[in-house]
Amino acid sequence: MKSRNDEATQRVLLLLKLDANNLFKRVKNRKSEYLEIFALRRTRDHFPKIFDNRYETTTIEDLSHCGTDLITSLDQFYTHVEEMSWYLYQTQDMPNTVEDFIDRKIIRLEKVLATLNLFLDAELGFETESLKSTLPEFSEEVAFEENTAEEFQE
Asked: What tens digit of pLDDT does each residue of 106-120 get?
């Protein structure tokens, strides 16, 4: 399936896709490092390197190239990121409580990212098969983490 968007729009969409996916990878993969620094030093100086993203500087004009569903999905994803960042900047919670909060947010963020990627891929004109190949990377981990969380509640 070919995209109906012009080249400039394709570039904006691709940059948004790369930004969201790279941001998620930093938040998830570096979690133990940034939480350890926070717990030991009680500093927040390193958080901008984790939560830095292009979306904050994306203009309304750039976003006007996106469909309404995609804009809504982008807003949901980056709202979760902002909530996580705000919590880390403001919290006085103990390290275990902070880690529990971040774990829950990462699980939710992963689900929202999967939806965002579907909308981005649709607007970019990627084939359905390529969409399916990207989902297991996220959904298998989410399913495992949800099942694990349910076991603890029982």
From this structure: 999 999 999 999 999
Task: Tell me the three-class secondary structure of the chain, residue by residue.
Answer: CCCCCCHHHHHHHHHHHHHHHHHHHHHHHCHHHHHHHHHHHCCCCCHHHHHCCCHHHCCHHHHCCCCHHHHHHHHHHHHHHHHHHHHHHHCCCCHHHHHHHHHHHHHHHHHHHHHHHHHHHHHHCCCHHHHHHHHHHHHHHHHHHHHHHHHHHC
Per the model's pLDDT, the better-predicted residue between 128 and 73 turns out to be 73
Residue 114 has a CB neighbour count (10 Å cut-off) of 16
| Structural domain boundaries in the chain | 7-153
CA distance 35 to 145: 20
Give the 3-state DSSP-derived string for 89-132, with helices as H, strands as E and coil as C. Answer: HHCCCCHHHHHHHHHHHHHHHHHHHHHHHHHHHHHHCCCHHHHH
Neighbours of 33 (CB within 10 A): 11
The average confidence (pLDDT) of the chain is 83
What is the value of pTM for the model shown? Answer: 0.76
